[in-house]
Design brief:
The protein is α/β, with parallel strands linked by helices and about 350 residues long. It folds into 2 domains: about 170 residues, Rossmann fold (3-Layer(aba) Sandwich); about 150 residues, 3-Layer(aba) Sandwich (Rossmann fold), CATH 3.40.50.1400. The strands form 2 sheets. The chain has a 4-stranded parallel beta sheet with strand order 2-1-3-4, with helices on both faces. Strands 6-5-7-8 form a 4-stranded parallel beta sheet, sandwiched between helices. α5 links the parallel β3 and β4. α6 packs across α8. The longest helix is centred in the N-terminal third of the chain and has 27 residues. The protein is globular.
Length: about 350
């Protein structure tokens, strides 16, 4: 007779490392109009005619390098997070993926079937920062399916938590163990997005990337500005950890295509830093709460290879928070604010 339920939502992953499954996943992901924001015909020609045919075999190889016996690291880690959260609530808790499986539509259908007396669902997108290609598309998908299916439940959505004290503290604590030995710099590497996405998300139409120091000048546009929110996370975490300013740098990874994306680019900085005297590097990826291809392969493997080949001496990639207790507690606290229920501690 549950009246409330919780749905945590992550990005997603291919069902396997086969080229066929990776191709299917990439088609679903890249055909999202909030990921590649082009007219349908142009997007279809680009994605299905150019990007996916060339990218799928390479991505399949990359996935194979990080795949576990249980499956995709992202899916496995999200299931582990799900179990941690389920242990703290009497209400039903489920997980879904924006792309791939378990699909949002299947999970919503199951939730309403298993709990016919539901009155509300608390949606928790596992994205700390607002971006149209991550947080926004996840929320929009759930709302569209909810409306299409005619569900009567009320949807409550957890807002981006980029500056939430609990998230900041959990992130800082995950970094601390890697700062015990001497290091030259800590690089905060966030997932990149095209600059045009920043411009499209600017509700004022005249602030983001249009005035000097736009991220530092208070503006209502910041509520949906990915760039501002990443800088805010770096600034607050650095303050909590009392990091020297000269040892902090921020960059953006995972660029796709030739259009201008947020800069500086992580891959380029990893090539340049050793020549600038940075021989011992620590790198953290705060945009991800669960380790995935972008952290385990792009940064921990390829990023390390790039940095060390450029003359680096030490490269430490900090794991995502995954199921760190402080992070689990933060997630549960944010949900509890919406549910107004008591968490049952294990």
């Amino acid at each position: 007779m549950h009246k409330s339920a919780i749905l945590i939502m992550n990005l997603g992953s291919p069902d396997s490392t086969s080229v066929r499954d990776v191709r299917r996943y990439l088609n679903e992901f890249l055909m999202d109009e909030r990921v590649i924001d082009m007219p349908l015909l142009s997007r279809t020609l680009l994605v299905r005619g150019i990007i996916v045919p060339f990218r799928a075999p390479k991505s399949a190889k990359a996935y194979r390098s990080i795949w576990t016996n249980e499956g995709s690291p992202l899916v496995v880690l999200t299931r582990q997070l799900l179990a941690e959260v389920q242990a703290k609530f009497k209400e039903p808790v489920e997980m879904c993926m924006r792309y791939g499986n378990p699909s949002t539509e299947d999970v919503l259908k199951k939730m309403h079937k298993d709990h016919p007396h539901l009155e509300e669902i608390i949606l928790f997108p596992l994205y700390p920062h607002y971006a149209m290609s991550s947080y926004e598309t996840a929320v929009v998908q759930v709302k569209e399916i909810h409306k299409k299916r005619g569900y009567k439940t009320k949807l409550k959505v957890i807002e981006p938590f980029f500056n939430d004290p609990g998230y900041i503290n959990a992130l800082a604590e995950s970094i601390k163990p890697y700062l015990g030995e001497p290091y030259d710099k800590i690089l905060f590497s966030y997932h990149g997005i095209p600059e045009r996405h920043i411009l499209k998300s600017d509700i004022t139409g005249k602030h983001c990337l249009k005035i000097a120091n736009c991220c530092e000048i208070p503006c209502e546009a910041h509520a949906q500005c990915y760039r501002h929110q990443t800088f805010a996370t770096t600034r607050v975490v650095s303050k909590v950890l009392d990091l020297p300013a000269q040892k902090i740098e921020q960059s953006f990874q995972s660029r796709l295509g030739r259009d201008p994306w947020l800069q500086p680019y992580t891959a380029k900085r990893l090539e340049e830093l050793p020549n600038e005297g940075v021989k011992k590097l620590v790198i953290v990826c705060p945009a991800f709460v669960s380790d995935c291809l972008e952290t385990l392969e792009e940064i921990a493997v390829e990023g390390k290879h790039t940095f060390m080949n450029a003359g680096g001496e030490s490269f430490k990639a900090i794991p995502c928070m995954n199921i760190q207790p402080l992070w689990v507690d933060t997630l549960c606290r944010l949900v509890r604010k919406e549910l107004n229920v008591t968490i049952e501690h294990a």
